[in-house]
Amino acid sequence: MWWRGTTLVLSSSTLLSTLLSAVVHAPGSYAAYVDPAVLDACPGYVTRKVSQTRGGSEIRIELGLPANSTGCAVFGQDIQNLVLVATYETSTRLHVKVTDANNRRYEVPEDVFPRPKSSFVPPRNSQLKFNYTTAPQPFALTISRASTNEVLFTTAGFPLIYEDRYLRIKTSLPAGANIYGLGEHSHTFRLDANNGGQGLTRTLWSRDSFGIPLNSNLYGNHPVYYDHRTTGTHGVLLLNSNGMDIKLNETTNGNTLEYNVIGGVLDFYFLAGSENDPVEVAKQYAELSGYAAEVPYWSLGFHQYFIDVAGVISNYLKAEIPLETMWTDIDYMRDRLIFTVDPQYFPMSRMREIVSYLHSHNQHYIVMTDPAVGFNPNSPTPYESFNRGESLGIWLKNNNGSNHLGVVWPGVTVYPDWFHPRITDWWNDEFARFYSPQEGLDIDGVWIDMNEPASFCDYPCTDPFGQAVLQNMPPKRGTSPPDPNAPIFTDAGASVDVAPRAYESSQYDYLLRRRALEKRQDGPADDPLLNPPYAIDNTVGALSSRTAYTNVRHFNNLTEYDTHNLYGTMMSTATRHAMLARRPSRRPFVITRSTFAGAGKHVGKWLGDNLSTWEHYRASIAGMLNFASVFNVPMVGSDVCGFGDNTTETLCARWATLGAFNPFFRNHNIDTGNSQEFFIWPLTTAAAKNGIDIRYRLLDYIYTAFHAAHVDGTPLLSPLWYKYPKDTTTYPIDLQFFYGPSVLVSPVTDEGSTSVRYYLPQDTFYDFATLSTVSGGQWITQNDVAYDQIPLHIKGGSVVPLRNQSAMTLAELRTKSFNLVVAPDSQGRAQGDLYLDDGERIDPPPSRTTQISMVAREHRSEPGSGSLLGLPNELQFHICSETTVEDLMALGKTCKALHQVVSDRRLWEVAVLSMCRHHGLFEPSYPVESMGVVDLQKAAFGPILFNRRMKKFQANISGKMPTLRPGENKFVNKLTSTISELIPGGRYLLTGGSFTGSIVLWDLGTAGPFYRVKPKQELLGIAQCALDHSRFVMKALTPITPRPGETTLRFTATYVVRY
What we know:
Helix 7 (about 425-435) packs across helix 11 (about 565-580), helix 13 (about 650-660) packs parallel to helix 14 and helix 18 (about 905-920) crosses helix 19 (about 935-940). Strands 28-27-26-25-21-20-19-30-29 form a nine-stranded parallel beta sheet. It has an eight-stranded antiparallel beta sheet with strand order 3-4-5-6-18-15-14-12, covered by helices on one side. By secondary structure, it is α+β, with helices and mostly antiparallel strands. Helix 13 links the parallel strand 29 (about 640) and strand 30. Among the domains are: about 50-275, Immunoglobulin-like (Sandwich), CATH 2.60.40; about 705-855, Sandwich (Immunoglobulin-like), CATH 2.60.40.1180; about 875-955 and about 975-1005 and about 1010-1059, no CATH class. The chain is built from 21 helices and 49 strands. It is an enzyme of class 3 (hydrolase). GO terms for molecular function: beta-glucosidase activity; carbohydrate binding. It is found in: Secreted. Its EC number is 3.2.1.21.
């Protein structure tokens, strides 16, 4: 940066004049620029009084300007007296708020960002420490890690500036600091404080940002960052919705981070994170901002947008590419008016026919709903949605009480006031009417857009009606309507267009023109709400440019100046509630464009109007990581293959495989762009089929990860440094990521290339395609990566549940059995989880859910130790009675012979007693050797249902269990011979062990490693084993049925078996 290294020493008499002369606009920037050295020379505040309450858990500090000082006064008069309150809220969270001591200031409303319930911990129990300086020294605060005294955040050397419309606070950072977050942005995941020598300014001010330009403010605002160091990871949230510039700079002494905010208060939450596990800071932020919404199971399927809905449905079916959900943009509306359909191009009867077809095939449908409501008093056709809202007075208002007008797709529009007390009544009612299952569009989810809120009206928007005419809003259709009598779906599965694709004024061309014409537009100098003294670096200039005016007022008298950045999240919350009112027992699915901190509690997010370029393909990964791993919005994804421009076959093929690992997976492009559906080109067809096949087989694995995000904030996606926090090589990597806890994704990212260079940290990995072991701790170049493939690895130490095959819909997928892939680490250990529920209900009761914990660990038994010999491994599964586990693959294991099945009678006794106590079935009061087979059934397998053969089975096996000496297996042989009568051709072993606490019946079938138990067989809990050199496969039918009220139980398998 061109001011780096400058120093300035000022006397108090020259301070003000120097500051005024220093206020300029930085080159290439719209923001007001003041030399940092000048600001750093401001007098700041001094401590006046300190008091403590709640045993020191709450510290109150009264601050004032130094004696005989008027402060900095660079963007207005400094506030004379401040109050700072520091609260130790939990052991990992410290809350510090600085505000005006005498006058109430705007704060983010509680109902938009609910604060945590009041809690306090003694400072000695906190992982953070709060320190401050006292007079006569300028006030400074320092947050440090209690265990090491490492400074995490300090304003030492940087004065606090607190003016009515300009707040500045600055902290030093270590040199080369690893800072992540501060979005929404299109920069690299790790923010570059150098940024080509210019420093980095992250401006937070929502705007319609077609093309997602670099170095620009975008759709959403998340004023939170994570600071990762080799010594630990911590987080900082500034809970403030006003416009701001957050500046990262490199200096000769290290890095700095500086907030420049144009209103509100300084309301900080410091999160201790962890010294060893970065995931902890993400969990702590999720606890603070609200745990992510649980998503419906079907929402994880593949989504496709297109105008010709029926044609796309038919072509995906013909190409045998799974399609879960169809989407329609604003094309379906009459004159782009929300809550309408075009009666000629998208008649309601035809739309309902398509929705019925989708639902009858277990597929889903979603349409766009924008916030702006068309206003045309001269229209001959009544617009009832506007009329009903007008009667309630729910629109944003100008200061004179008139409706505030903008220009969006319908032409002149009004904007809903989400703070109005009747807004919920109106929004819910419109949803109930238009999206009625009986008479309207029976949608399954909602897509909300343009909710920054966007406006096309050039600033100052003094003639919105004239602007609408000049911009041809709403755009006119360029083709004739389709034949209303033509069948939508023919017997052959083909279709006719429901609506034409072309428009006289294309959305894409218009947006490109707008982007090319973007320029600074200053507001009236006499209105600080329109033109504040400090100008943030808003790409389009004035705060009110291309959006609602910042001086309009909400019903509660709040202004858009303060609440602009909340508009999208407030619409998101209202839309979620409208869907809940419409379908009370089912999880809403809402995808939004504009977000604020805490949005993930209600909605998912797509990354906006990207372009079909390799640059945006690569940037989509960092975008996903920001939202899923930092901002706590796990349901996130980009428009696969790109939205603007025209994609290519190879780019779309690569993006199809990468998109399969987007949490939100949708193909969507501009209305006038070339078609890019996956069935268009052979390469994209193959890529989509392979990508979706892997995604669907892993769907319950990632659904489990979504549930974890909902329950405790565990990130759905992870950068490599989340898993390997001490490996400095991982810190800048943002072209690889972990999908869920265990699957590492390393896509090809260069145009025209079939090679990719990726990094595997020091660990054991398994190639997902071949299951072969790959050693980490190195960069690897993988060549010959076909366009329909994507390199994937399973992290060692994982148990990964997969469906045994994919399906065309997720309803069909849920009928498939599971495979459990055990990928041990270097110590022979592995663990994983599987969560199952009905996929639809909000907060299903425990009786309708299943939580399966899977643990594999290695045991090395010595002869005479009272455990099985030659069986070095154990798996424990907590499995629901309704779950079928078909295959289990243990990777990277060397198989050993089974030398001895049972060592002595005491072994059996320990095993049976342990199993009985675990399930509470009965408590034997007699020697184990006198137990009959019926008792043994209860102990080992619960109710084994042999139906007609039960008596015969009991007669043959009943009697005393023989005394077993080392090497003998008479009882096993006797039991095996009887079972063989029920399942001819099978050979079985009954094994147990004191370390397993269980008994397992093994079938060592002769049909090879992929032998299948026939469906007619009704044995419950029988495990079948087979051997295939480097992998072990276990197949099990439905395991033990638990007692009434129990939902989980233990199923134990011992592997590495030869007979």
